[in-house]
Design a protein that fits this description.
The structure is a single chain. The chain has two domains: 164 residues, Nucleotidyltransferase, domain 5; 173 residues, ATPase, nucleotide binding domain (Nucleotidyltransferase, domain 5, 2-Layer Sandwich), CATH 3.30.420.40. The chain is an alpha/beta fold. A hairpin with a 4-residue loop joins β1 and β2. Bound molecules: 5'-O-[(R)-(carboxyoxy)(hydroxy)phosphoryl]adenosine and zinc ion. The site of 5'-O-[(R)-(carboxyoxy)(hydroxy)phosphoryl]adenosine has 18 residues, from α5 and α6.
């Protein structure tokens, strides 16, 4: 019997709503999705303002839900399960998705399911044209997380290593800010880097030779700041003409440092686990140089690399609806029919399976 799941994502600065349908024993179908990014709203402040984020989620979530239903020509009554991002993320923002999902579920008399945001990212490549098979190593690289996981199946995640300070996306964003780029600067930094020399500046590769699978990126922004100061520039750098070569070279060198560490540690994780599949998920997974270098190194070792479709790399509702549908299909979590909800702003993925059943 197939189940239609409406998923709502509201953990940070994107409101996403999507509808998926399970297909007995196969990967669920994405029926429709709608997304609203708040990036412009937060740009003036140089980062996400939690209160503004919550208020904007409130404005967007129902119109987006209506849009998905209209696009799929379905009615609210056609939804079997309401899923929402329970955490991790901004408390107020999470409460909007949780409240709406539980409110709709109560009104419709349907069950709800709280989903782990990182599980959404981790499973999102199953919606791509080249879906992975279990087991695999997952490199989760987002604005808030950098983790390597061994994934045996739905709900079976083992943490292999993670950042001890800043996330990879944070390192991209903080360096981008110093280069005068708007928040979140990861994608813009990678565009600037296209014209630069990745060897122009010698930047640190923290923990590259630590022998474990942990990361540390906090020192990188300091090294970038030092280069900006050494060259006598204002911080953040003005984007006016005259410093283009410097900015492009520093962007390329920063990207090279982050990518080298991510690639090296991913290969180590594959070696240690003996697994032959790598899944790369989260916003930084959209980075072209990271993709090229992983492809190059993994192909040489007979390892397949899987990614979400580019538009599903950053936060979206499809990955939340998908994760819920895959959990239901795998029988790892029964949905709840009471509508008391709580959100988990801090929620390690490796304890998720345990927490979810309590
Ligand atoms: O997964 P995501 O949408 O949000 C979180 O859950 O954090 O990831 C957002 C992060 C931001 O730090 C953004 O700058 C980064 O992904 N990002 C990129 C690229 N596109 C997005 N970083 C490097 N290169 C890109 N092309
Ligand atoms: Zn995310």
């Amino acid at each position: 019997m197939s189940v239609r799941v409406l998923g709502i994502e509201s953990s940070c600065d994107e409101t996403g709503v999507a509808l998926v349908q399970t297909r007995c024993g196969q990967i669920p179908d994405l029926l429709g999705q709608a997304l609203y990014s708040q990036i412009q709203l937060h740009q003036a402040y140089g980062g996400v303002v939690p209160e503004l984020a919550s208020r904007d989620h409130i404005r967007r979530v129902l119109p987006l839900t209506q849009q998905v239903l209209q696009d799929t020509q379905l009615q609210l009554q056609d939804i079997d399960v309401l899923a929402f991002t329970r955490g991790p993320g901004l408390a107020g923002a999470l409460l909007v998705g949780a409240g709406v999902a539980c409110g709709l579920a109560a009104a419709l008399g349907k069950p709800v399911l709280g989903v782990h945001h990182l599980e959404g990212h981790l499973l999102s490549p199953f919606l791509s044209a080249d879906p992975p098979e279990f087991p695999f190593v997952a490199l989760l690289v987002s604005g808030g997380h950098t983790q390597l996981m061994r994934v045996q199946g739905v709900g079976r995640y083992e943490l292999l290593g993670e950042t001890v300070d800043d996330a990879a996306g944070e390192a991209f964003d903080k360096s981008a800010k110093l280069l005068g780029l708007d928040y979140p600067g990861g994608a813009a930094l990678s565009v600037l880097a296209e014209q630069g020399d990745p060897k122009a500046f010698k930047l640190p590769r923290p923990l590259l030779h630590s022998g474990d699978l942990d990361f540390s990126f906090a020192g990188l922004k300091t090294a970038v700041l030092t280069q900006v100061q050494k060259a006598g520039n204002e911080q953040p750098m003005p984007t006016a003409a005259g410093q283009e070569t410097f900015r492009c070279n520093l962007a390329a060198s920063t990207q090279a440092a982050i990518v080298e560490v991510l690639v090296k540690k991913s290969l180590m994780a594959l070696d240690q686990t003996g697994l032959k599949r790598l899944v790369v998920a989260g916003g930084v997974g959209a980075n072209r140089v990271l993709r090229e270098q992983l492809q190059h190194n993994c192909a040489a070792r007979g390892i397949r690399v899987h990614y979400p479709e580019l538009h599903l790399c950053t936060d979206n509702g499809a990955m939340i609806a998908l994760a819920a549908a895959m959990r239901i299909e795998a029988g790892v979590e029964s949905t709840q029919a009471d509508y008391n909800f709580e959100v988990k702003p801090r929620w390690p993925l490796q304890t998720f399976a345990k927490d979810a059943s309590t």
